[in-house]
Design a protein that fits this description.
Structural class: alpha+beta
Strand content: 5-15%
Largest sheet: 7 strands, mixed
Helix content: 55-70%
Shape: globular
Order of helices and strands: HHHEEEEEHEEHHHHHHHHHEHHEHEE
Number of domains: 4
Radius of gyration: 27 Å
Number of strands: 11
Length: 553
């Protein structure tokens, strides 16, 4: 009886699991193991995999695969070591005079203005590579010079650059880890007298950094177009967050209403938003020609430009990568293995930025999609309503349930909250989010036609106002959320182990029931009531999933 391993059908899943193991190991050991050692171990494992392919005859494939996975694991550890080396900078114990480029649009927070800086020069000497600094600038209420600062501008300042320090927290959110994931190497506070505008040293930045700054500057012009609609502040804030990924204008009340009602995910750009953009672009370029190489290339170029425009957040990069894989599958007339595509997207992101593994948005984004891929089809098959409206609502309910199952423990761990009305909320927000995205695209397309554009703007603002009021109402209901949840990391891991175990049991039971039905059908069609005489032997792999039926000797 042959034994099959289910994981061999998902090669990228195996690779990403090995890569994650290496990232976790190296992060736990810190800098106690030099990067050169990790790299040497990886090279040795790669050489052993090639030697094993020559020496081992009987189990060549198994041994070679084992060493290749070990190589991938050690490669992950090497990449983490390189990230730690890049984030490590030597900072002066005294204030320094430096030149920098504004890397994000300044945001007013009380009496200070917060922004990201790329420090290119210190004491008039150029740095080998820019240092990313999280800066707070004290506002000058008399002259208001800080209003002149925008993304891409240059400044010269005098302040003390210090390492990122941890903040007091009531949840498990780690600010220092968050800063490392986003590449911040220092933080500073600038007094209002200790800076002045200066020409930006863009030549000291990489090509990707310069392109990103230009795209963010273009995004600011689009946001100004939203400002001109005459909406109130929170209507503008929701439109800006859902379409361009700018959440800086959201008030705490709006954030709480969306979070308590279970709709905060629509404020963060994700696969929902990018999927709608992809569908719109495919339709505009001719839906029937979706297997055209030219059409798909144009659509994917537009998708990645949009990802650059919104700042390349983890959820958008993951969605853009999966859409790229999906497009390739469509063009090659092949089935799109969702789990494999998801694993490939994770592999690409972790190789490019290994510390993204600790990003909360990365974790929630991939867990949500994994839940939809694994659980949604099985949940949807539990009930097959005939009317299309019921089928559409049931599909949305199953998607929400599937995503909630895999993300709820992590949301409770990081934020201490569980939203009780998430099903009702998603039925409201998903269509509204689609209408808002459609309306935003129509708004820009109809800009040359003032009358049409005004009508689109009014409709868009009405949808946003209705959505804000509806979610505020849901958040005000009794029992809208369970607050103050405290879970330890061990408890979260145990919850996911229980979920995985339950999934395996349910899937095994389903496959065994299907085989029993098949045996009964064979006996009925052949007229033989002896189960053993049908000549079938069940082969079950080590995950407990039935692979196939084989004929006995």
């Amino acid at each position: 009886m042959k034994l099959h391993i289910r994981l061999q059908f998902y090669p990228f899943l195996r690779l990403v699991m090995a890569l994650i193991a290496g990232i976790v190991t190296a992060d736990g050991l810190g800098e106690r193991v030099p990067v050169a050692c990790w790299l040497a171990f990886a090279m040795c494992a790669l050489v052993l995999s090639m030697v094993a392919s020559k020496l081992c005859d009987r189990h060549r494939t198994w041994v070679q695969s084992l060493f290749l996975l070990l190589t991938t694991c050690l490669l992950g550890a090497t990449l983490v070591g390189l990230c730690h080396r890049r984030l490590r900078v030597t900072l002066s114990a005294a204030p320094v005079d430096y030149g920098a480029v504004v890397a994000s649009e300044p945001q007013v927070r009380g009496k200070t203005v917060r922004m990201d800086l790329l420090v290119t020069h210190v004491a008039a000497r150029p740095l080998p590579r820019p240092v990313s600094v999280r800066a707070s600038l004290l506002c000058d209420t008399l002259s208001g010079r800080w209003r002149q600062l925008h993304v891409g501008n240059g400044l010269r300042a005098y302040s003390l650059l210090v390492p990122i320090r941890s903040k007091e927290r009531s949840t498990h959110f780690d600010y220092v880890r968050w800063a490392q994931v986003h590449g911040y190497q220092a933080q500073t506070f600038i007094y209002y007298r200790d800076w002045e505008a200066a020409p930006p040293a863009l030549s000291a930045l990489s090509t990707l950094q310069r392109v990103r700054l230009r795209m963010l500057a273009f995004r600011q012009r689009l946001l100004q177009h939203y400002r001109a609609l005459g909406s109130d502040e929170q209507q503008y804030a929701v439109i800006a967050a859902m379409t361009l990924g700018d959440k800086s204008a959201l008030s705490q009340a709006t954030r709480d209403a969306y979070s308590i009602s279970g709709a905060s995910h629509v404020l963060a750009l994700s696969g929902l938003h990018l999927g709608i953009v992809y569908a719109i672009l495919t339709f505009l370029l001719g839906g029937r020609k979706r297997r055209s190489w030219v059409a798909q290339a144009l659509v994917l170029c537009a998708v990645w430009i949009y990802a650059l425009l919104v700042g390349l957040p983890a959820s958008v990069v993951r969605s853009a990568t999966m859409l790229t894989v999906y497009s390739c599958c469509v063009l090659l007339h092949r089935e799109h293995a969702s789990v494999n595509a998801l694993a490939f997207a994770a592999l690409v992101m972790l190789v490019a930025s290994p510390l993204s593994l600790w990003d909360v948005s990365f974790q929630l984004s991939f867990l949500a999609v994994l839940g939809i891929v694994v659980y949604q089809p099985r949940l949807f098959r539990l009930w097959r309503p005939a009317p299309k409206p019921f089928r559409w609502v049931w599909g949305m309910v199953t998607v929400s349930l599937a995503a909630q199952v895999t993300t709820a423990p992590l949301v409770a761990y990081y934020f201490g909250r569980f939203s009780c009305y998430f099903l009702l909320t998603n039925i409201l927000v998903v269509p509204a989010a689609a209408l808002i995205l459609y309306g935003a695209i129509a708004l820009f397309v109809t800009t040359p036609f003032a009358a049409v554009s005004q009508g689109v703007a009014l409709a868009l603002l009405w949808v946003v106002r209705w959505l804000n009021e509806a979610l505020a109402l849901v958040a005000s209901w009794p029992g809208a959320s369970v607050e103050g949840i405290r879970l330890s990391l061990v408890q979260v891991v145990l919850l996911y182990v229980m979920l995985l175990s339950l999934t395996v049991v349910v899937v095994c039971a389903g496959h065994l029931r299907s085989l029993d039905e098949l045996d009964a059908f064979n006996r009925a069609t052949t007229g033989n009531n002896n189960p053993a005489s049908n000549g079938y032997d069940r082969v079950i792999d080590d995950a407990g999933l039935v692979e196939d039926d084989v004929r006995s000797e």
